[in-house]
Amino acid sequence: MSSQPIKLIVGLGNPGKEYEQTRHNAGFWFVDLLAQRHGTSFKAESRYLGHTSRLILHGRECRLLKPATYMNRSGQSVISLANYYRITPEEILVAHDELDLPAGTIRLKSGGGHAGHNGLRDIIGASGSRDFQRLRIGIDHPMDRSAVVDYVLSRPSKADRQAIEEALEAAADCLDELLSGNLQKAMHRLHSSR
Q1: Which of 24, 51, 96, 117 is an active site residue?
Q2: Is 191 a catalytic residue?
C-alpha cells in the first residue's frame, strides 16, 4: 500500500440542501467531521469549483475539498486544486459512498477502477490516473439494480445513519496515520475494528 502522505482529502457528494442527508453524500459527511474535529471550516473557492478547508496535524498540512460540481463532474474540482498545490494522485484520498459494503463498514483501498461510481469515474478521467487512495464508506445495496439511483439519493434509516457515523468516527481517528503516509497501519486499524 502506498506510503505517500495524504495531502488532499476529497469528500464526494452533491451540493445543495436537498442532498445533504442522502447516502450519496457520505464523503461530504467525512470531510465535514474532520473539519469539525480540527476546528476549521469550509469556504467556497470558485478557482477550485468547490468548498475547501485546511488543517494541520502534528505539523503536517492537509487540504479538504468538497466539489461543488455535482458528483459526475467531481474530477474538474479535484484536478484544479491538486494541480495548483502540486499534489500527486497518490497523495489524494477520496472518501465516497460504497454500495458493495454494508452500512457501517469502512475500507481503505489504494487505486483500482471506479466500479460504476460516477464520482470516481470522473476523477479517473480528469486525472488520467487510478492511483489515488479511496475511503469506501459502506451504505449497503438496495438489491434491485433499477433502484440504485433512488436509493443513493435518499436518506439512510436511523440505524444505518448511526452505523455510518460510527464508521466515519473510526476513520477520522486514523487521520494521523493517513497524513504521515502510514496507510498500512490505518488500514489495519480500520479493517480489524469494523
Answers
A1: 24
A2: no
